[in-house]
Design goal:
Blueprint (H helix, E strand, L loop, with lengths): L7 H7 L6 H15 L14 H11 L3 E4 L6 H7 L7 E5 L14 H10 L5 E5 L4 E5 L6 H4 L1 E3 L1 H5 L10 E3 L1 H4 L3 E6 L6 H4 L3 H4 L3 E3 L6 E3 L2 E7 L1 H6 L5 H6 L2 E4 L6 H11 L9 E2 L3 H14 L13 H22 L3 E2 L9 H6 L11 H20 L6 H8 L4 E4 L4 H10 L1 H11 L5 H17 L3 E5 L5 E6 L1
Parallel strand pairs: 1-10, 1-11, 4-7, 7-10, 12-13
Antiparallel strand pairs: 2-3, 5-6, 8-9, 14-16, 15-16
């Protein structure tokens, strides 16, 4: 930073050029697109749907509103766009609204430049500080967004007609940057009107003062589709001023959902525990969310967030860790019996469309369907005939929290057909916990396929599989 220009004269001599923030973002976006680098980081599943639309909007210099249910990475995408700003930007020293040294707009900056000329001090701000965000709430005021008279400054002796008595709001303070308004329809209509000038004329007007601040700002917003389109909670002139309206979505396939869990979930435990999540168990959790988004018993307008998948994966591993700690084991591998714990992590994240108090039954049914789906995708039931025949001889197998992994390993050794199915699921990973997890998936899959019977105790923590 010491090598950067420290005053206006040095800035001019350095050859630095001032460009509008939309042009700055567009220029950096062009470099990323040309290099094949995504515009935003850590957002999966939008490569062929949302991202092309976002690239178009940025290249066109549009303000953007993202429409989507909760948990669709709308805010994450907006925050990531700060990466398209130049890393450092010069402003007039002491400016509250990031005044451009070449084109000052605030009273403070204009007077300072008029007084000191090329000796006007310049400071540099990082791109991360050029981002402003506000969650729209019914009590949000014009003062929050645009500004208000500061009574303390008046008490200090300034006149009400003096521009220096103003306390700038979030939008002016994000001048020459990106401003985001989350859940825009929740903003009161009279406050929405205050954003009209920001989006079209690019200025703000405060109270009755003859203050006009020509701002240079890019506006991004997010909204729930139901609030945005059906209820009419966004005034038409404001909708008309957004150049692009981009619809987000949940992961379109199980693989993307699993990749998001790998990226977001905290599945590593300390205290000497070694956590392994077999791919088929991760797939069950992701499939459960996918099925929930198709269920008629779950309110789809409320949405089934990806946060549900992440929370369920963490809960499944936590239950497996608790089971291992009680058994004195260090190996933590989730099994089908650990899925019972997902009801608690799911109940608070979905809204059920049912008149009866049977929410637990709905979720339990979806979990069983997820297990059956993964079982059928990975194994051929027709090739498990010998496993079924082994139970026809009166064999009874227990599963649950108190069943040690070595017992399932012994069962796989005794039944060759079961061992073949386990190998198909886990490959050459023959650790006891992984094998036990595969054995439970096979047994539960056969039960859900109506090949075996299953009895559970009243606590739901221990099950018994036997022939039909």
């Amino acid at each position: 930073m010491s090598s950067r220009p420290a005053n206006l004269g040095q800035l001019r001599d350095s050859g630095w050029e001032s460009v509008p923030v939309k042009e700055e973002i567009r220029r950096n976006a062009v470099e990323r697109i040309r290099a094949g680098v995504p515009l935003v980081d850590a957002v999966l599943g939008y490569e062929h749907t949302v991202m092309p639309q976002l690239e178009n909007a940025i290249l066109a210099g549009h303000d953007v509103i993202f429409l989507g249910e909760r948990g669709q990475a709308k805010t994450r995408m907006i925050r990531s766009l700060t990466g398209l700003l130049d890393e450092w930007l010069p402003i007039v020293a002491g400016s509250e609204i990031n005044d451009d040294p070449y084109h000052p707009v605030s009273h403070h900056a204009r007077e300072l430049i008029a007084e000191k000329g090329d000796d006007t001090p310049v400071t540099w701000v990082h791109r991360d500080t050029r981002y402003g965000e506000k969650l729209a709430t019914p009590d949000t005021s014009i003062a929050d967004l645009i500004g208000e008279v500061d009574p303390i400054k008046v008490a200090e002796g300034r006149y009400l007609s003096d521009e220096l008595t103003l306390h700038y709001g979030l939008v002016p303070r994000t001048n020459r940057g990106i401003f985001a308004m989350n859940e825009l329809p929740d903003l009161a209509e009279r406050i929405q009107v205050g954003l009209l000038n920001v989006l079209e004329e690019r200025d703000v007007q405060i109270r009755g003062f003859k203050v006009r601040l020509p701002l240079d700002v890019v506006l991004f917003a997010s909204a729930n589709p139901e609030d945005y389109t059906n209820r009419g909670r966004l005034i038409t002139p404001l909708k008309d001023r957004f150049g692009a309206q981009i619809r987000t979505h949940y992961p379109l396939d199980v693989a993307t959902e699993m990749a998001i869990v790998d990226q977001e979930a905290s599945l590593v435990h300390g205290d000497g525990l070694e956590v392994t999540v077999p791919p088929f168990m991760a797939e069950v959790v992701a499939t459960f969310s996918q099925l929930a988004r198709q269920s008629t018993h779950i309110n789809q307008r409320s949405g089934v967030s990806v946060r549900l998948t992440v929370a369920n994966a963490e809960t499944m591993v936590a239950n497996a860790a608790r089971r291992s700690l009680r058994a004195g084991e260090t190996e933590v591998v989730p099994r089908v019996s650990d899925l019972e714990a997902l009801v608690a992590s799911t109940s608070g994240k979905v809204e059920l469309d049912t008149l009866d108090d049977n929410g637990g039954e709905v979720l339990d049914r979806l979990l069983r369907q997820a297990v059956l789906t993964v079982f059928r995708d990975r194994l051929d039931v027709g090739r498990l005939r010998e496993v079924i025949e082994a139970f026809d001889d009166g064999r009874v197998v227990h599963a649950g929290e108190d069943v040690a992994a070595r017992d399932d390993v012994a069962l796989a050794t005794e039944i060759p057909a079961l061992r073949d199915a386990v190998i198909a699921l886990v490959g050459d990973d023959e650790r006891p916990g992984v094998v036990a997890s595969a054995v439970e998936l096979v047994l539960e899959g056969l039960h859900l396929s109506k090949r075996l019977n299953k009895d559970s105790d009243h606590t739901g923590t221990r099950s018994t599989y036997h022939s039909r």
